[in-house]
Amino acid sequence: MAKIINVSTGEVKVERGDAILRSSAIGSCICVVAYDGIGKLGGIAHILLPGKAPANEIARSKYAADAIERMLKDIVGIGGVSGRLETCIVGAANVLNDDNDTVGKNNIQSVKKILFENNIPIRNESIGGNLRRGVALSLVDGTVYYTEGNDPEHVLWRFGVDGGK
Known about the structure:
single chain, alpha+beta
């Protein structure tokens, strides 16, 4: 039976083997789900804010640049290869329906820019809108699942099947 690992806001977790990484209650935050299909390992970064953390920030992984950098380092640390990583991104909704809220949009731009600069492909995404989301990654087969609002879980992407390596 797969071990379930929950990833909360501002956290980065990586794992390998028979495990499922899961993050829920994703509002304006954005989750980057990374998978190395050869190593059957991956991670989720549940990012709260765009850009890089200020120098005096203690909780650095809540910022996009720091969280993605840490996730890449941690994945390599457990045997992953950054050149084999494929990603999906989930979240960045305007759940309060506030016309002045740009956090979700800024998170999308920040994450896409960072992944592009690191030559890491985004295979699929469920972003924007105004509904909260959830995401899960099965490390056994590289399937990424997502929920939107109160809808049931759907497949977002499968390693080796949906345009992946």
